[in-house]
Design goal:
The protein has about 140 residues and is an alpha+beta fold. Helices cover about 40% and strands about 15% of the residues. It has a three-stranded antiparallel β-sheet with strand order 3-5-4. A two-stranded antiparallel ribbon has the order 1-2.
Length: about 140
């Protein structure tokens, strides 16, 4: 086999002209949270903003109350100690939006009210850590 210098030169030039690989540098989302450059290029926002796209601030406040994850609370290690919200007719639309977004699920009925429980995605949207998510999702008697 004969050594072809032109072939090696073309291969070298082809490698140089390839686009650089995607780098997972941290960038800031519009909400101020950190996200990877790849995620911002794909979705245009961080994962929390993607999860809560159709959710209002009032809906997120209900989700935080459901989990006991009230901002400014000193006992952050107690976030997730409760995972239920009994809502009547007035809050039903907000809870249905949370269910349709996958942040909550419907629980047992109680007369004209319904219980709602947060899902793993709901816990993440509120900003809970792994220990709080485990505490919120563990089975209770």
């Amino acid at each position: 086999m004969m050594y072809d210098l032109a072939h090696t030169e073309r291969k070298h030039l082809a490698i140089q002209n390839e686009p650089p690989p995607v780098v997972l540098r941290a960038k800031a989302c519009a909400c101020g949270a950190q996200a990877t450059a790849r995620q911002l290029a794909q979705h245009g926002k961080c994962s929390t903003c993607v999860l809560t796209a159709d959710i209002t601030a009032d809906d997120l406040a209900k989700l935080q109350f459901m989990l006991g994850a009230v901002p400014g609370r000193d006992l952050k290690h107690r976030w997730g100690a409760r995972n239920h919200y009994c809502c009547g007719v007035q809050d039903r639309a907000a809870m249905e939006r949370l269910v349709s977004a996958g942040l909550a699920r419907v629980g047992a009925p109680l007369l004209t009210s319904l219980y709602f429980h947060a899902t793993t995605a709901g816990c993440r949207a509120v900003g809970m850590g792994a220990a709080g998510i485990r505490l919120a999702l563990e089975a209770r008697p």
